[in-house]
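Tokens as discussed.
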């Protein structure tokens, strides 16, 4: 219990102390009070959310007797601060990583080539796609009133692919670095925008966080085993804290609550959806599920990306007024054209992988020349389309 209090206390102090003080002050001002409470100039430690969750899982797994305590301080410190995934994940549990430190791991050319391919793929996602989309997204979210409805629709879609490629790109690099050293990290993304519903989305997006929240929060609260009311309560609490985990801002709280609402509506709609599926071709029904899920995930992304609720609601207002849907009014045209090209390249690649993943994995793992061709292709794309800027990985801020 002391360890949990210490870990959560440090996380609360560094990440949320000023947020709750500011929120309390704003509420007091609304009520006509004049509190004189000052915030602190706190520097947020790098990667605090990720290594806090890793140490929490270690403590909880010991308490539940899933693992034994690690008495070698160097081994434990290595687990907590293992550099490839420290800053932005994936969140690796002690039960997965600590045993690997005990093994006599061999670095092989096969592991090096697999890791190198993942690293180059990660940089392709980051430099070619995420950083190409970043200027469009940053400017639009900073000045939404100057953009047309169609412009903002495109920008929101671009942000969905920016954050996906930025974060999954980092995860690929981390997994690749670990593999080159002989360590295996869990995957963190699995084609999330092909999700057919919202629960499927959370099985594919930031997998190590969603499974962490499921195993250490949702299930201990009772999961879906105590009736409808408690299931809905547990969903709301889990997604609310999942949103707050990303940052001390009301936009993240709304983002989490929106996903809780989506999951609740999905649960209520599932019996109707099951009946409707009998009247549609299977492929069409699946496509509709993907389209609906992607649309509402994008609406939630507006809050996630916005600096404030005012900005988020301004973007939503502009989009749904449909004030100008003229393609000729899009700006800046060259950057939008480039963004569409790189997003289409990603979509085509992921559709092909989605359809032929088993065959592709077999070819890559068994044919050395296939790895060389893919490496050459990704490096060529980086040189041709890469946006070499100073953009940090988005999840560094969390």
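Sequence:
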């Amino acid at each position: 219990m002391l360890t949990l209090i210490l870990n959560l206390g440090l996380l609360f102090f560094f990440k949320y102390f000023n947020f709750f003080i500011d929120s309390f002050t704003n509420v007091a001002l609304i009520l006509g009070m004049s509190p004189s409470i000052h915030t602190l100039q706190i520097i947020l430690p790098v990667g605090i959310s990720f290594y806090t969750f890793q140490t929490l899982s270690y403590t909880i797994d010991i308490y539940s007797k899933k693992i034994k305590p690690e008495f070698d301080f160097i081994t434990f410190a290595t687990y907590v601060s293992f550099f490839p995934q420290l800053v932005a994940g994936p969140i690796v549990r002690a039960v997965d990583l600590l045993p690997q430190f005990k093994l006599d791991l061999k670095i092989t050319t096969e592991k090096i080539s697999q890791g190198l391919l993942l690293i180059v793929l990660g940089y392709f996602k980051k430099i070619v796609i995420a950083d190409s989309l970043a200027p469009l997204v940053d400017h639009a979210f900073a000045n939404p009133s100057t953009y047309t409805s169609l412009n903002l629709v495109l920008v929101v879609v671009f942000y969905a692919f920016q954050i996906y490629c930025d974060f999954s790109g980092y995860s690929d690099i981390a997994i690749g670095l670990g593999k080159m050293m002989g360590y295996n990290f869990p995957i963190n993304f699995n084609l999330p925008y092909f999700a057919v519903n919202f629960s499927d989305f959370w099985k594919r997006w930031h997998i190590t966080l969603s499974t962490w929240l499921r195993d250490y929060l949702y299930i201990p609260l009772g999961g879906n085993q105590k009736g409808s009311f408690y299931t809905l309560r547990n969903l709301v609490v889990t997604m609310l804290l999942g949103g707050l985990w990303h940052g001390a801002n009301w936009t993240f709280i709304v983002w989490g609550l929106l996903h809780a609402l989506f999951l609740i509506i999905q649960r209520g709609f599932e019996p109707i959806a099951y009946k409707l599926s009998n009247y549609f071709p299977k492929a069409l029904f699946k496509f509709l599920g993907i389209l609906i899920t992607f649309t509402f995930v994008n609406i939630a992304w507006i809050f996630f990306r916005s600096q404030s609720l005012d900005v988020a609601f301004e973007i939503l207002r502009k989009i749904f007024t449909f004030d100008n849907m003229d393609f000729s009014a899009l700006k800046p045209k060259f950057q939008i054209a480039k963004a569409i090209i790189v997003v289409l390249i990603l979509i085509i690649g992921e559709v092909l992988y989605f359809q032929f993943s088993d065959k592709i994995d077999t070819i890559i793992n068994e044919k050395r020349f296939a790895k060389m061709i893919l490496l050459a292709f990704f490096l060529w794309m980086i040189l041709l389309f890469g946006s070499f800027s100073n953009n940090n990985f988005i999840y560094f801020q969390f």
